[in-house]
């Protein structure tokens, strides 16, 4: 069965939610029939926790799920029982970020906003090494391996359509805070990605853009299957994901506004080319 552990768990949860609503039950009503708390039903439906086989058998009976749908549910459960383990080098992936990396390869479209940094998927290897070293990481090789493994999603068959908006601050802070060679390598890497990956769409948001303020970094994921669309919001020590329709729509509207104020893909290429010339000139004159 296709998909990842997280996408299958959320797909199963969505099927359970649909079956519950079709049966005319609330989460509280189903919880009473299962002799459990409403919170457990909510966690199963949102994919926050896995569904136990015994619980699924009870749900199929209580909700009078037809044979085909019951079989689909059981296939999802069986696939997840063989699910990916977060050990070895993958154990270095922060827990809050595991759902993100698990869902990413299965998304149809990904819309990301980043205000102060180059996001991991777009980082050159030299930039990664400098970033991990400056942060005082204990095992740079392990972190680098995870980051490079994640980047394989860009070259998979039928990859997501990526739409990135990066603030001009992300580029200017890089140029001011990193060695010149690293900044130049990163800009050239972005230009190469843009040239070789047609499913990657880059937009720069200049300082002069007509926006009052910008939010924290976030990523919207949409799916063609039964997985619910979701938003990952990042902050200093971690992140949260949200998948209610109202929450997703609020972030979609915000992203659309930022996109309208940003440079086009063609103008962004011109902006990056100008940055490359600036950095090459600085290197030739020996200035920062």
TrEMBL record:
The lineage of its organism: Bacteria, Bacillati, Actinomycetota, Actinomycetes, Pseudonocardiales. This is Helix-turn-helix domain-containing protein. It comes from the Bacteria. Residues 16-70 form the HTH cro/C1-type domain. InterPro entries: Cro/C1-type_HTH (IPR001387), DUF5753 (IPR043917), Lambda_DNA-bd_dom_sf (IPR010982). GO terms for molecular function: DNA binding. Pfam families: DUF5753, HTH_31. CDD domains: HTH_XRE.
